[in-house]
Amino acid sequence: MDGGRMNLKDSESLPSIPKAERWESLDLIRGCAVLGIFVMNIQAFAMPDAAYFNPTAYGDLNGGNYGVWLVSHLFFDSKFMAIFSILFGAGIVLFTERAVKRERSPFWGHVRRNGLLILFGFLHAHLLWSGDILFSYGVCALLMYPFRRLSAKALLRWSFGLLLVGSLISVSGGLSFQAWPAEDQQEMVDFWNPGEEAIAEAVAIHQGTFTQWQPKVSEESWLMQLEYLPTAIVWRVTGLMLLGMALFKSGFLLGRGAKKTAKNLSILGGLIGLAMVAWGVWENEQIGFGPVETSFFLLSQWNYWGSLALALAYIGAILLWFGSPVLAGLKNRLMACGRMAFTLYILQTLLAILIFRGTGLGWFGETSRLGQAGVVLGVWGLMLLLAPLWLSRFRFGPLEWLWRCLTYGQLLANRKPSGEGTA
Length: 423
Hints:
The chain has 423 residues and is mainly α.
């Protein structure tokens, strides 16, 4: 980095992106991310909460089921969520810069945009699913506004500092666990390894009707928004958003970085990140994924930092792919998914509810990890089919269009005139 700009002295650079197409690199990264997060989210829809964090807490973990868990943890857990957070940070800079160019107030536009996201997230969380990220992203984005004018170097320093705070909070929680009040200790132990009665209750609730599972979802959402967000989530999300702002300002996310930089990032980040995450798995398996103070608070740090390295490796690899002709058809479909990420994220929730909750097929607690992998592949195929089809007729996804209209306070045209392309 030099003066907040990416050093482009390498002999070979990523292809220059015409202004009209400049954001397609972000679309491709976002499209990969919206597919990737479903690999982890489906576990929260299909099984009791503990199984998301502790794979031994529920269900069979042998053979193919173990293989699915291992692949999901090594290559997906927290990696694509990190990419989403990075892209959201980049979007803050992009949105405010565009507002200034159009002589609109960047501050009030930013507040409206993220205030609406908080509202969408609140409804999504309390009505449908407590694992919602929209509410947290909206809150964290509001906090990021004062940072938008900092140089890339300054943003990187702030990013590392906030990420470090989040890590230290988790480590201190593990080291001080034995000094916690006895009832708080027992609550964490029960969360980490619930008994048969708690599991049976969770299965019964989620296999029930909307009026049976929605109050539980809302209760968990209040816990996420009022306790976990300010004490844990905010540090990692804001740290990653600042990293995204830095990478956007450097031009790297737009494909302006050196090809050698992207290649080195994908290789080194991949090797370092995978080694860290794999070491965490090995250590957890040596102690049987317990006790909770060791596994949840301390050994989780291998994935906390390793997932960041892998996320950056994925971004580097995707940017290299963006500049190549390989699998152009799949690339175009993923870019369409990226332009409709908000809509597809909510669609994933609706499909998962129809499959796993009692208001639909009621497969909660009855679908193995192998079975969940099959559902993921099916949903991926559906999204890759629907997104290009929708964007062949409309400029924006339905929720993207609604968000845009409410942000700007006007009804915007969405249907494309006949003959207009899909780009």
